[in-house]
Amino acid sequence: MTALDWRTLVRYVVSVVGLLLLTGVVATVLTTALTALGLPNPVASPAGLGGGIAAALAAADAFTPIGRGTRTDALERKSDVRLGFEIVLAVLLGAAGTVLVVSLGGGGLLSLFGGALLGYAAFMFQNREAYVLERE
Question: Which keywords has UniProt assigned to this entry (predicted)?
Fold first, then answer.
């Protein structure tokens, strides 16, 4: 591998590690907050993780070299505060979606995927101009 290849590889590895840490931190904070609000742990834990996954997916698009393209360039033109707000909204909707799926009797991976999908879809909808650009 050339020096450039190593640098690129390191950037990707650091991005993945950062996204995993983000997922863990968001999941822990959300689970703790939801448990403190009285949600039972079997509901709060998946909700926290669903929100964490939604945060990681949105942050990967907005801030990392993973999948870099016109979408990432369009997202980088937005302010960090605005993107941060949109990621927080994705987290909240991801957690709420997970709680909804669990309350409807869904469990395990179904609840995580449902919540994460809802949160990430909300982020994509907020930034639909960036995602439409990529298809053209």
Answer: Membrane, Transmembrane, Transmembrane helix
> How high is the mean pLDDT of the chain?
88
Neighbours of 56 (CB within 10 A): 27
Q: How far is CA 18 from CA 24, 73, 102, in A?
A: 10, 20, 28
* Residue tagged 């987290």 (tokens): 91
What is the span of the domain harbouring residue 129? 3-135
Closest C-alpha to 50, from 85, 102, 105, 13: 102
Contacts 24+ apart (CB under 8 A), 104-107: 107/46
What integer pLDDT is reported at residue 112 of this predicted model? 84
The pTM of this model reads: 0.87
